[in-house]
Structures are given as structure tokens and as C-alpha cells.
Amino acid sequence: MTKYLRTTSSRHPKLTALYSIGKSVQGRDLWVMVVSASPYEHMIGKPDVKYVANMHGNEAVGRELMLHLIQYLVNSYETDPYIKWLLDNTRIHILPSMNPDGFEVSREGQCDGGQGRYNARGFDLNRNFPDYFKQNNKRGQPETDAVKEWTSKIQFVLSGGLHGGALVASYPFDNTPNSRMCRSTPLCSVFQNYASTPSLTPDDDVFKHLAITYSSNHPVMSRGVACKAGTPAFNRGITNGAEWYPLTGGMQDFNYVWYGCMEVTLELSCCKFPPASELPKFWEENRVSLVKFLAEAHRGVHGFVMDENGNPVEKAALKVKGRDVGFQTTKYGEFWRILLPGVYKLEVYAEGYLPREVDLMVVEQHPTLLNVTLHPAKRNDNLYRHPTVGDRLGPGPSPSYHSQHSSPHTNKPASDGGIFSSITSGFNNFVSNIFG
Q: What is the active site of this protein (predicted)?
């Protein structure tokens, strides 16, 4: 795999960049391949997305499909207008094997069982992330720590985690509230009606749409047929994670709650490690879904948060009103949020600035560009702090959750009084300097 990735990167230097986010327990690199028209640097205003495969080492189909996907994208760039558009407007980061040590001890033809599932220390990597609902006391592993650091450095808008052993697109939440903890954390108030399964996020409509986007483009998954007798069948090939079975320390919930990244778990094969001869069939079944899913990063709202002088405001806290899992701006002031068509209010907070509440409309045909100008707060109006976030659980930053009831702001946020916020002349100059 390492040889293949290096060879591909050297053959396609204008479309690929290879980097390692860390090493496994046994010292194998955790390689990530960027495929994009701008592989070496972020394209301002354009989203970063990712796929992570093989976190269970014996679930091999996703790992192989990621290598096929890389080849397909670079080979199609000059001939397929849709692929060209995707790579011109998106940076795609692909981690083919999060658990290379586990893969080394797993065996082709083993459809079930746990041989190779865990990392070299015997840890299940999909139970090793911080969890919002329940304290996760499992010792952090190098593979998970590398992914956590990676996710903190790049503001991913959309993500897919590739697994095997079932045929379904599973969406957050993977875990359910714990009543003791829920008394002290604001997010759980959202779930008082969902004390048991399913465990739905404030963005349930978006997650269902993302899951259906994948399953409906997959000729087998979309039929929702059970893998074998005694295993569940999933209507339309999708499920809420906790409704299927609850788990603590999962990667998709971590991505969403901590960093506002929409992640869906994609179970791609009934057999975890099928014979290599079946790979062409799996590639044909998943090819369209893998591409169409990533393109969903271009749905909803995106834009910039700037100050009065047109300078970007980094780490401004944003949330869509009524959807209390927040997200932040990048160092360039950029933000993205996947939303279905409708009318929304965006709340924007940043230290030292008056909060804003901006109306926006999302349409089906293209993402809405929304640029927000923040005005400085006066020293004595106590508007320096953005809303408090949920209790910090485990290492890393606090969850990017903002409670409706925990905001210290007593003044009503300044409204833009229109669908789109005004763009200052300074911001126009900023865009002109970058985009010409």
C-alpha cells in the first residue's frame, strides 16, 4: 500500500499529495492521500472532506476501495467533467488504513470474527474516542490520537468512516444519553424524549439525507436486505447508529460533537475480508456512492466571518438556531454547514465582537454564500464571551456544542435585517486580492 501511494503521488504531482498523520503501535505510517486540484494547500472558500477506512483491521473492503478511488479520481480528472468539478472545488483526504497493524494479522476469506479487528495493543479503535454522553476511560491509542490531532488541524466539513460486516449507512448518534450525566449537560435536554433508541442529533434531517445519498446510489444497500438470517434488515439501507446498537467512544459522534464535521459510518460488505476476486464487484457497487457522498459538502451554506476592516475572524463560534451542535471559522474566517433547503438563522459569536443573528435561505441547486461582518463590542457591555460549551469529556477541546440556555449574552444579537449580510468594502478587497 505504501509503495502504491508513493508511486501514485509521484505520477500525479499536480493532483495528489501524500502525508502521514502518525504511526501505529508497531510503527507503520498512517498515510493520507490528498486528491485535489490543489493538493498541497487549502483552497480558500472550498471545503476539505475525508474518508477513513480499515479502522477495524479485518474489515478490508474499505481499504481496497480507497486505493481504487484514488486511482479513479486522478485518471478521470481530464475526461470526466463531474470529477474535474469535484477536484477543482474540494480537497479530498483519504486515509486507507487507520489500523495497518490489525490488517497485517487478519486473513483473506474470514468473513466474521475478531482476528485483526483490534490494534496491536488489543484496543477497538472505534471505542477509543472521547464521548459526549458517557465518560470514556479507555487509554488513548496512537492511531486514535493521530486522527484526533488531524481532525483538530483541518476543518473537515464531511467525512465517511468505511467498515465491513454489514451493508448499511449508519448515522449519529451512536450513543444514548446517560441519565446521571444528562442532569448536568445541556445537550442531553434535547434527548429527554429519546431516552432509549434511536438517539437523534439536532441535524437528523441532514444525516438521514447523507446516509440515503450513499445507500440510494448503491444497488444492493438501497434494497435494505439482511446480510443473512438472524441479522437486521435496514429500511432503505440506512440506520441510526444507536438504534442499531449503542456504543461509547465512536469516531462519528466525536467528529460531529467536537468539530461540527458531519460523519456517516458506511458498512460496505456482509463479509469483512472477502476474497480478492470479489473486489471488482465491490468497486462497481460503491463507485458512484463514494463520489456523490463527497459532493454533498457543497450543499447548504458557506462563507466568511470578517471584522469591519475586512480581516478574517478566526474561531468565531457559529450555530444554526435550533441546531445546538456548533462549528467554528478557520484562520481565514471561513465556515461551512451542510443544510437541506429551507430558511434558517445563523448565530455568530466571537470574543470582542457583538453577536450577530443572520437570516439565510438554502436552495437545492447550489450552496448559499453568506458573508458576515462583526462589529467590535464596547469594553463595558460584557459581550466578549461566546456561549459556554458542553462539559469537557476526555482529552482534546470541548465539544463544539452551544446551549440555547447558557449564553451569557443578555442583549439580543444584532440582526442583519435581510437574507444576506452586507459585505464590507474591505472584504471585497480581500476577495479581489485572493480570487482576482
A: 267
At 395, list the grid cell.
482529552
Q: Which of 289, 421, 311 is nearest to 359 (CA)?
A: 421
Q: What is the DSSP letter of 379?
A: G
Partners of 238 in beta bridges: 169
Short-list 322, 315, 382, CA closest to 348: 315
> pTM for this one?
0.86
Cα(363)–Cα(269) distance, integer angstroms: 34
- Beta carbons of 54 and 160 less than 8 angstroms apart: no
pLDDT tens per residue, the chain (436 residues)?
999 999 999 999 999 999 999 999 999 999 999 999 999 999 999 999 999 999 999 999 999 999 999 999 999 999 999 999 999 999 999 999 999 999 999 999 999 999 999 999 999 999 999 999 999 999 999 999 999 999 999 999 999 999 999 999 999 999 998 644 444 555 554 544 443 478 999 999 999 999 999 999 999 999 998 999 888 899 999 999 999 999 999 999 999 999 999 999 999 999 999 999 999 999 999 999 999 999 999 999 999 999 999 999 999 999 999 998 999 999 999 999 999 999 999 999 999 999 999 999 999 999 999 999 999 998 655 544 444 333 333 334 556 654 332 332 333 333 343 333 333 334 344 433 433 3
Bridge partners (DSSP) of residue 319 are 347
Strand order in the sheet with 91-95: 16-23, 29-35, 91-95, 48-53, 156-163, 262-269, 166-171, 238-240
Query: CA of 316: how far to CAs of 150, 235, 270, 304, in Å?
Result: 20, 39, 43, 10
How many other CB atoms sit within 10 Å of the CB of residue 107?
11
Q: Which amino acid, one-letter code, is at 421?
A: S
Which residue in 30, 25, 41, 38 sits closest to 5, CA to CA?
Answer: 30
Within 299-341, strands assigned E span: 301-306, 317-320, 323-328, 334-337
